[in-house]
Amino acid sequence: MDYQLEYISRYFEKISKKKIETYVVTRIWHLLNDSEVLIVPQQYVKRLESYALTDLYLPQIGFHVEINEPAHYNNIERESLDNLRSEELRRNTTHKVFHIDCRGSLNDINRETDKCIAIIKDEIADKRRANNFKPWQDESEISYHQKRGMLKAEENPSLRTISDICALFDAKVPIRGFLRKGVVNYKDMMIWWPSIGNKNFQNILSEDDNQIIEYSTNEKKRIPHIYAVKSDSRKRVTFFRGTDNLGFTAYKFKGIYELDTESTSIEKGLAWRRIANEISI
Amino acid sequence: MDYQLEYISRYFEKISKKKIETYVVTRIWHLLNDSEVLIVPQQYVKRLESYALTDLYLPQIGFHVEINEPAHYNNIERESLDNLRSEELRRNTTHKVFHIDCRGSLNDINRETDKCIAIIKDEIADKRRANNFKPWQDESEISYHQKRGMLKAEENPSLRTISDICALFDAKVPIRGFLRKGVVNYKDMMIWWPSIGNKNFQNILSEDDNQIIEYSTNEKKRIPHIYAVKSDSRKRVTFFRGTDNLGFTAYKFKGIYELDTESTSIEKGLAWRRIANEISI
Fold this sequence. Notes:
homodimer, alpha+beta, 28% strand, elongated
């Protein structure tokens, strides 16, 4: 199954218990009818002090869709809380939020959804005209970044595999298997793809992404590891490994980090401090 | 939730574990974009000696869709068996069968599905032009039949509730609750809606629909019931109660039946023989 089909199928399956959401999301997808447009379920949005969750998000145009099932309107408190949340989202970002009212019949919901689809199509057409639209195409992820010559952390560039990362930087792909290293050489730096943890390491990314603490959980290797890194403290182009909302692995570009020797200690581990949010390729 | 939305949502939910089928069915539904068109999952089709099952059926135009997942093509035996089945279906009925090849990418599957959708749209347009298209609209089910003035068993007319049956024949709706009778008077006949069984009765419909055996499972009432019916042996306009593929109750018109006193016995029960396949309203 190709990646796009797998992705969309997983999305539909993930929400299949929510009947109206499934109806509306499948409608948006099929009537947009544009395989260059990415739809993302349940997007976390940073709020002032917490996170908000929208039902569907179109990252290429910064557009959120809230699918309001009938129950949404039965609770005035909940309704006004949701509206407040949308307001805040609009105020704090350049994002747009569209609410689809799903209280009516099938034909009513079709009409409401189609209004939303028309707006999305317009936004995409505008971006395409301005030559500012990054198509969702698996194969072109790498070539898109290469053509652009730049990765910016604020745009959340995300790659699917270590091979993709290496291809982007024209770096040697590390050997697979348990001997695989967690870094490859790149110019005078290294490319690094830490994950939250594996059986040897624990990596903690700070909330603001400005620091990563790398900690060896293997007691015997902890001290030699710190000394080894200190003696070869090249900067690291860093992709933090995580999973997206559908459970796919995603290596998210975070920036360039350098060793912060002052904050590093045997007890705490290696402290990496972000020194750049972007990199030219 | 209105009936159409409930129906389509249940359909999507029912197939949600089959990822490619969900993708294709939701696409067909949304791109047909016509709430007068009914789609039915997993339709049983009578074959010479058994039943075949197609993935999606459009009863208004006698059109079947087979959604062939990649695995379908891995097994030559299975593939040729399926083709044979489709051939037989085409030969024995006026039905059409379209196979969607789902081996390709998302864009390939979109293209294959869209070919199918184009044909379906043509077929529907033809039927509409010929004034021979019965729209799928819950409210109009009754008015459609009334306007037509005729029920034909071969067309599988199906109503959703006893109230709908009574509305169609302008008959008195029986009182709800456990005192509700299983029949209402209609002209010199009765309208009857037997089910396979409840705590008092067992009703067996023959394979060819030509006979119904009505059997009281209450030993004390069995003999009096037979005598009571024999003394009031009005013909019965019969809707056999069942469930459709999505679990909705469906009262399917089968024809007019009269008591076959020769085949009736205390041991066997009341035998009803079909004497007409249609009725004027």
